Every structure is written in structure tokens, then in C-alpha cells.
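User: Here's a chain of 303 residues. Predict its fold as C-alpha cells.
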Amino acid sequence: MPATPMPLSEYLDRIEAACRPPREWTMACETVMETVGHVLDDHYGTSGPKIKAQGSYVQSLMIRGSDLDLVLYRKGRSVNSCSKNCVKRYLTTTTDAVVRSLNHLNGDVKARVKQRILHARVPIVKLVFEVRSEMIDLEADEPSSPSSAASTTSSSSENSDGVSIKTVKPQTVEVDMSYGDEQRGECDAVIQTLISSGGEVCHKFVTLVKLWGRISGATDSFNNCLSTFALILLAIYHFKSVDMIEKRKKKGENRPIDVAFLLSSFFHWVAFNFHCEDVEIDVEEHKMHSRLPSTYCPMFIRV
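Assistant: Prediction complete.
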């Protein structure tokens, strides 16, 4: 007998679960941020530079292969008050100091500079952190539900007392470090709030749209494509629109929203309801407009 085909919903759930980063890697990200914060305080004092996360880490949308986006900032200092050359120097000297300090300490976290991209619109320094393995209690690290579980990069064993422990492999965390204001990352926190308000279905849907954007090249910044942030906004906008429409229908006429329906309607909407070739989304100004004045775009996104 031919094998029974897997239901589409289950297939999509498996794809979404497989693209999540391992829990150990997420924990390594937390270790990196904590360690770098301590190094900055020790090297520059409490009034010196601080770091904070931004991007997919704050959005809770990290997938395998994601970088950890960190921003250096100084309380009360605006990035607009510094020249670009000043930003480049400050970013270079600070990251070099962090790398030297971590490697001199010979602790659980090592770092090296992978690449300096200082001539970009937003200068960044790419860093690679190696977080040494630790022994983690399996029960303490167990996810609260099967749906929240991510794959691991660990092996299980028992110690001499018969306690189940897990040997975690060393984790590599690639970091894009930039310099900015204390307010950086606030839009990402708004994204996280919007996704959380939509529940697990919204999170899975937006994650799969983001994954599609990466695989298809739709968010390839080197080819002047749509930014990942803009694609995420479009996905959230679509989810909220569909959710609102279904809630307004009469009882018995509405249908449960699942990930498969959302993906199908999202790509149909993008393919047939966009009447402009190039769309620009400006989050800070709360407006969306077409770069081509002769075209019409029936959408408005506000965050």
C-alpha cells in the first residue's frame, strides 16, 4: 500500500521546528551578552559603553544561521552627534578591547574579529565568539511543551550518582556589532509584542515567511531586495488583517486560521494585490508609499 501522505499542517510544523536554533545556542547568546557586558564595565567603568540586543533575537524570530545583532551605545549620547569617522574609530577600538580582554582572561568565552565593514551605511564589526561546553541538568533545561522544543546539539549520560546530565558541545555565536543610540531595538520589541499577541500560529507563520525570504533570496540585501524587517511587517499585517476579518464574520461562517491558510493567502495577496513595482516602508514616520508616483499601493502599515 502506498504511504499515507503527511498532512500539510504537520509538514509545516516540522519545517518550522527544524529551522529553530538549538537551545544550547540560544543559551550561548545569553552568555555572550552577559560576558561582554561585564568586560565593558571592567574596562571602561559603569559610565562607559553598554550593549543591547536588537534584530531577530529581540523579535524572538531567530532561525538557524542567524547572527546575534548587538549595538554599542552610551547613555545620553546620540549617534547623530558623532561623525562617521568617530563612529568607526569607537567601534573598532571598543571591539578590539573586548576581544583582547576575553582572550586574556582565558575563560569560558573566546572571541575574534571576523570582518570589519566600516564603509557601510551602518558600520559593523563581525565577531565570532566560542562558548565552551558546560554540564547542564537535563530536567532544568527541558522545554515546557513539545511545541516549544528545539533541536539540541548535546549528548546525554549519567554521572556516578545516577543523575542524568547533558554534555553540551561548544557553541559558536557570530555577532554583528554596531554603534547606535540607546533606543535601538525598540522597533524589534514592538514586533515581538505584535507576534506574541497573535499566539503560536502567528509566530509559526511569520517564522516560515522569514525562512522563505532567506531561501528564495527575496531578502537578499546585496541585490537591493526587500529587507527582512519589512517582510516581517508585511507578514504581521497580513495575519492581523485575516484575523480581524474572520472575527467579524457571523458565527458559523468564520473558519479557524491555520498556518497553511495564512501562507496561501499571504502569497496570493503579495502576488495579486500589489500594484506597484517598488514599495518602501518607513516605520519611524508611520507611512508606507510607493517610490513611483504614478502607481497605487492600497496598503498602510503602522507600527
